[in-house]
Design brief:
The protein has 2 domains: about 15-135 and about 290-300, Aspartate/ornithine carbamoyltransferase (Rossmann fold, 3-Layer(aba) Sandwich); about 135-285, Rossmann fold (3-Layer(aba) Sandwich), CATH 3.40.50.1370. The longest helix is centred in the last third of the chain and has 19 residues, at about 280-300. α1 (about 15-30) packs across α11. About 35% of the residues lie in helices and about 15% in strands. It is built from 11 helices and 9 strands. The chain has helices at about 15-30, 55-65, 90-95, 110-115, 135-150, 165-180, 205-215, 235-240, 245-250, 270-275, 280-300, and strands at about 45-50, 70-75, 100-105, 125-130, 155-160, 180-185, 200-205, 215-220, 255-260. The strands form 2 sheets. A 5-stranded parallel beta sheet has the order 7-6-5-8-9, sandwiched between helices. Strands 2-1-3-4 form a 4-stranded parallel beta sheet. With about 300 residues, it is α/β, with parallel strands linked by helices.
Length: about 300
Amino acid sequence: MKHRHLLGLKDYPAEDIKSIIDTAFTFKEVLERPIKKVPSLNGKTIVNLFFENSTRTRISFELAQKRLSADTVNFSASTSSLKKGETFKDTAQNLEAMKIDAVVMRHPTPGAPLHLTKYIDAIIINAGDGTHEHPTQAILDMTSLHEKFGYLKGLKVAIIGDISHSRVALSNIYGLKTMGAEITLCGPATLIPPFVEDLGVNVNYNVDEVIEWADALNVLRIQRERMGGGLLPSIREYRNLFGITRERLSQHNKELVIMHPGPMNRGVEIDSSVADSDQAIILNQVLNGVASRMAILYLLLGGKSEGGKD
């Protein structure tokens, strides 16, 4: 791997993304076995440092670490000495003193994982930093797309919804563009960042035109907790204009792959009948999330194969 850390996918090498995806497919085979554990990271200690609530990402990382036989320590900011006035720097350096090998970090402030690299020597993996990036989610999305289609170059992927507040969208844009995919963003004008076309993507505010163009739809959650008032007239209007409904899809006579990073607002950005349909690969994304994170940890931490060789 050319980069020691995984802080984001901007300028991340295509060959490294390909290595992660290929390795993820290998680990997915491991997850299908009766005994789903390998000794690849035996003796390594990984801290899950979460300053923000998470269910899927935290459990996915923890499961990936245990499947690789690493020692896992979970750190929750809400129950830590940070509540007593300890600084971020002191917390980081105390962790470093415990001789850890890697930190998986989620933080509400963009750039926090990069900041952490200044204080400790352990490998840092960004599990989401504010509205900036969520690289491991984008990698599992690309793994899922590659598994479904067999390629990424030239694939037409639409990202639909709250683009402005989505770290998933930005990491997917960087990663998919690097791998040669075509991307169209769709959503209300108030939720599309200005100058986003400078990233080499298309913007279209007509969701039906986007569905007609796309091979796959990555449907994003409306992040009401991150946005102020006035960005959406109403949830009902959003659903009518941009919601991925069974009625809307039935108007397009084509095969589509439906994705969602979760958690879903059923009946808002996506209907239950769509999320639970054969077109959706949402639960497969979850399994690929464990396999992809196993691959990332294995490659960054210099894991050993099952035979014990480097």
